[in-house]
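ugh finaly. both done.
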Amino acid sequence: MLLSDYISEYIDFIVIGFAAILLIILVCLIVLFVKTSKLKKRYKKFMDGADGKSLEVQFEDKFNQLKELKDQSNINTEQIKKIFENLAVTYQKIGIVKYDAFQEMGGKLSFTLAILNDDNDGFVLNSMHSTREGCYTYVKEIIKGESFVVLSSEEKLALEEAKKTRNYME
């Protein structure tokens, strides 16, 4: 049997096979055309009103804005560090105790005020009020939470209250 006889016998199957392949190629071509069309529309929308140079300028502007934001963030970080350094030496812990210094009838008009910084350095201010003799005020230095001068019980209470005050860094 010759090749031409073989082909003529199965020509119907060959034509149907080629038609199926052609149909598959046509469907793939249509799908590719639709996808390309959508991609072109998105590209046109992206590039609408902009040529390559203006788009480059827009990108450059955005990068410059990002650089400015980064620089400002660095400046803010440095300023915050300085603020925290300053806070460490400012008086921020306070304790106060009111009491009646001479057990008189006048009430609790005397007070002790302890004021400390973050390192518990500061002072205790004691103001004793008497209805007969007036008011006496004393200041005692506090270093690292301790006094080198004897403290009264009220002064010790105010100092302990100030030391318990919550730290700003916590």
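ok and the 2nd:
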Amino acid sequence: MPTRILALVGSLRAGSHNRQLAEAAVHHAPPGIEITIFEGLADLPFYNEDVDDGTEHAVEALRAAAHVADALVLFSPEYNGTMPALLKNAIDWLSRPFGAGAIAGKPLAVVGATHGSYGGVWAHDDVRKSAGIAGAVVLKDVQLSVPASHTRFAEIHPSEDGEVTARLAEIFAGLREAAEHRRLR
């Protein structure tokens, strides 16, 4: 049975390097790993417990996708030194009901690319913190932060960058191992 990994991309921009990283991950997924990019983050309303009654289609689609996934990978840019609201909102929806949300106990890794010289590490730390509080099992040693993405990917797509694709393969191997460990418990 393949390991199913759900990818959430924290940028809506058509030319987003984080979206391109997610595409590279899908294209170069190691054997035995299926990666699905969730396409509906833009359709999620801002989290509001008053409307969390199971009738919001976009929320139910996200939760259903997370429930069937064995693990998650979040692709995060860095906006003003932190994670984008789009990704934080998704984590909030996935955290409910508290303690039993769709990501509770699931292995999760954070990767991303930014124009800045540090690769978005502040944002990635914030994503890891928020996802961990939401109940995910955050793999802290399984990460990738690509700095100066506007230069690095100016002439090539991330799927053509051997160093990036090799690192993505390592990340997905780590997620698969964590997911298999979770299944055996």
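summary for the 2nd one i guess: Residues 3-167 form a domain with the Rossmann fold fold (CATH 3.40.50.360).
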